[in-house]
Amino acid sequence: MNIPVAKNEGRPLIEIIEALGETEWRKGAFSEFVAKERGEWVLKVQSQFPPTVSFRFKNNCSENVGRLREAVSSYSGKIKWILSEYKSELSMRTNFVIEPFLLLEMSSEAEALGLSSKQYVAKFYSEFGAVAFEDIAGLAMHVRQEFQEIEWINGDRMVKGGRPRLT
Hints:
Blueprint lengths: L10 H10 L2 E5 L4 E6 L2 E6 L7 E5 L4 H13 L6 E7 L6 E7 H5 L1 H6 L4 H8 L3 H19 L5 E2 L2 E2 L10
């Protein structure tokens, strides 16, 4: 059985976030996914939908969140990115999302049409998603540089003192 491999552009950002503190959950962005159609595994493209990286820390990491917010907002790439936070209605805990600023800007227009911000941008700014997927790698490199006290050895994350971070 030949199963194609999908891209996972959000993974580098997730690895940085996990090095900052243990996450309760996380979800990264990917421009492709694998699905089964008529008994065959196929690669589906969803690059028209701008990428986001969502997560929640197990413990309060307010200092790291502040630094992460500053690192994301200071990135100067193809597009502007932000770190948003939302209170979960169920757990009353804070969830975080790294997302293109355009999604926040378009939220009112999207809501007026009964669409999510991602759906709105995919429909009316169809090329934006692909640009954002290209830019997320640069954002991850910038954020990684802003947390220089974390040692990165052969792509594996290490914390202060060289102890491996368990996931």
